[in-house]
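(Fold this chain)
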Amino acid sequence: MAYSGLLSRYGHLLNLPPHTRTISLLEGDTPLIPADYLSRQLGGGFELFIKFEGLNPTGSFKDRGMTAAVSEAFGRNATTVICASTGNTAASAAAYAARAGMKSIVLIPQGKVAAGKLAGAAAYGARVIQIEGSFDDALTMVIEITNKHPICLVNSINPYRIEGQKTGAFEICDAIESAPDWLCLPVGNAGNISAYWAGFKQYNEIKSTGLPQVLGVQAAGAAPLVIGHAVENPETVATAIRIGKPARGEQALQAAEESNGKIIAATDTQIVDMQKLLARLEGIWVEPASAAGLAGLAIEIENGNLNPKGKRVVAICTGHGLKDPDIVIKDMVKPQVVMPNLSALEEVILG
């Protein structure tokens, strides 16, 4: 039987209203890839899997929640969706709105969105508006306008976004027939960590899959849940998690506490080093923010705070490297030029 999208597969487990009409790009069903080389690099003795969400239709995990949010909006005859975004939400909202024949509007912080993500939103036909402020300012504005006008807000404060994103937890349990011992993932606006925890709890009630300990990782320059207060001017190369006031921060902290896990911070250097290591060891290229969960895992192992021996660990890599290629391009060595003959090529390759 052909795969038919998340709402077809898991809709009966999601709290969606009866008027919902499915809008799908066959999202989900992303691979859970064994990462044996990286596991050995981190000390070995444990199973490590990468849930590669960059293989969703628009290249990020946002498609899981967006299929649910846009399907609900479409079912009640909404004509326009709006979101604030650091990039991935914008592309996803625009794609699903296009699929439904709806208009999309995205607000982005000026100069703070990776080109690959902005291009996606534009390609799908969104009206892109830059504001002179942060993501948090943009989110405040879209909340205000949707409170005043009949425009559907599709940021993660939309409860149907969380319902859709729970399916990542369902897929993991279905793939390995239980919850992992540890789940590691980036934390920005904190919708994804909240959704995964809700999903694991729900599946445990249904199928007795057990529960993971959750390790959420923020970028050190945008770590309000670690330092205990909002960050007015968040800064990090991990643009997808450059958020100073997470909309679901309290739920993220609750997920960490209930799971006997934690939320920590990783520096930009640690995040980028892990991004490069994952690509070179495992052939998996993710955007910088996606490597934050693995960077946090490495930090905790190195500091002796987490012993993964004999455990099963899943890291959520939220977006594809093509979403934000600037880091790689900036550091890339200029390709060597040779004459178009065999002897010249032999001299370069064989010395």
Remarks:
- The mean pLDDT is 95.
- The domain at 6-59+161-330 is CATH 3.40.50.1100 (Rossmann fold).
